[in-house]
Amino acid sequence: MAPLNYREVDPYRIGPIGNCYLGELPTGGSDRHTALGRVAGKQEVQAVDMEDRIKRLQSLFTYALSGAVAAKSRYLAIAGEPGSTPAAIARARLAWQQLEARKTAIIARMVALEELEEAIA
Question: Which of 24, 48, 52, 108 has a CA 20 to 30 Å removed from the CA of 75?
Answer without folding.
Answer: 108
